[in-house]
């Protein structure tokens, strides 16, 4: 009896938790299809009488939403790829070799995660100004890359430490160089970790607002979070357009996650078969 009550309690708790997590997403999607008059109707309508695509049409006509999506994709994907390349190499070195200053480097990486990013705003602005990189996509790529390398390196170092060094030693005995063993043996096994780190880096870049708002002034170079922030007016919020923008902004993240998930599942399956 106690076991049944415990199971029932868990089911109810999980159902309530799921409802609380799903309902905001449901409300955003529904709001994006509501006419403006229905958004502020009272009592609240949990299912609109009529569906309209006006909110989606408006954000593309009025705000040039496709430009912002393109800018965010370019910056987020490019920065995430650069982060992965640098973090894989640095994590491999930190996981496989012991050298003077090894501990200090790891401590420095951890310390960078404890400091708020805005304290470096003034030095970054001066640096980008002297390099003539203000108001360019490359400035965002550079700052996002530098900001994510420490944490990404820490994440990948943990994955490297789980892979026995005997794998690459066996490959080197068979004639592979260390570089070849890394590319042909270790990297394929590391795909789950690399995919997870790439997703993390991409999502962080995709959602970043502070630096993008401070360093980009040109309307044609603004990223998606900056454009979404523009829907918050001085005395009002354009909830319909904002909801439509949120729905569209989630799509690239879901697509990339779904694509990377294939590699995660394949990597876990291969690990289970080898085990």
Automatic annotation (TrEMBL):
Location relative to the cell: Cell membrane
Matching Pfam families: BPD_transp_1
Keywords: Cell membrane, Membrane, Sugar transport, Transmembrane, Transmembrane helix, Transport
GO BP, sorted A to Z: transmembrane transport
Transmembrane spans: 12-33, 73-95, 107-126, 138-160, 181-203, 239-260
Database matches in InterPro entries: BP-dep_ABC_trans_perm (IPR050901), MetI-like (IPR000515), MetI-like_sf (IPR035906)
Positions of the ABC transmembrane type-1 domain: 69-260
Signal peptide interval: none
GO-annotated cellular components: plasma membrane
Membrane topology of this protein: Multi-pass membrane protein
Cross-referenced PROSITE patterns: ABC_TM1
Top-level taxon of origin: Bacteria
Primary localization class, coarse: membrane
Similarity annotation: Belongs to the binding-protein-dependent transport system permease family. MalFG subfamily.
Name recorded for this polypeptide: Carbohydrate ABC transporter permease
